[in-house]
Amino acid sequence: METQTMKATNLKLKEFFVNQLRDIYWAEKKLFIALLKLQEAATTPELKNAFGQNRNQAQTHVDRLEQVFGMVNEKVNSGKCAAIADIVDEGVDMIEETNKGSVQRDTGLIFAGKKAEHYKIATYDAMVNLANNMGYRQAADLLGETLADDRAADALLTRIAEKNINYKLN
Fold it and tell me: Are 130 and 23 in contact (CB under 8 A)?
């Protein structure tokens, strides 16, 4: 009886894990497209470059997620990530509601970028933990690489914000 309960629990956990994979897969693909808009709207070369690097990483993240799907014997598929959809919409609103070339626009773009990174950091951190607990060690390692990328991207946006806002305010 206990074994059936454990199997059912493991199946439910795997189902949850795969649903989260689908969610973050959709998010990474959406961000790949959105980051080009952020890059084009950014004022400073440093911020443009950061969004460009982040866009390249998003493609790498998509590739890694496709590998993870294979590692857990699941078909690559996506499901809409409402949180990232809203964050992307907010980023587009920042562009439309601010003046081109303004510190306000760059600040808004940094906010949008950091919100996306924080969502992804929370998701990947939890997924690494779950993958490890489920015995998907290689998948956890790949997800951990992406987690490290996102933490670095978030730190870069913070440095740019501190540097650019202080420079433009003084």
Answer: no
The yes or no reply on domain 2-30+43-164 and CATH 3.90.110.10 is: no
Task: Kindly report whether the global pTM for this prediction surpasses the value 0.85.
Answer: yes
59 secondary structure, DSSP code: H
- Rounded Cα distance between 28 and 146, Å, is 11
Domain ranges of the chain: 2-30+43-164
Which residues touch 44 (CB under 8 Å, ≥6 apart)? 106, 160, 164
Q: What span, in angstroms and rounded, lies between the C-alpha atoms of 92 and 95?
A: 5
Chain centroid offset of residue 39 CA: 16
The owner of tokens 């951190």 is: 125
Q: Which residues contact 54 (CB under 8 A, 6 or more apart)?
A: 31, 35, 113, 153
Region of residue 74 (left: phi > 0; alpha: psi -120 to 50; beta: else): beta
Distance CA 15, CA 93 (A): 35
Contact 139, 72 (CB under 8 A): yes
* pLDDT tens-digit map of 62-112: 999 999 999 999 999 999 999 999 999 999 999 999 999 888 999 999 999
8 Å CB contact between 78 and 18: no
Q: In Å, what is the CA distance from 71 to each residue of 65, 142, 160?
A: 10, 10, 37
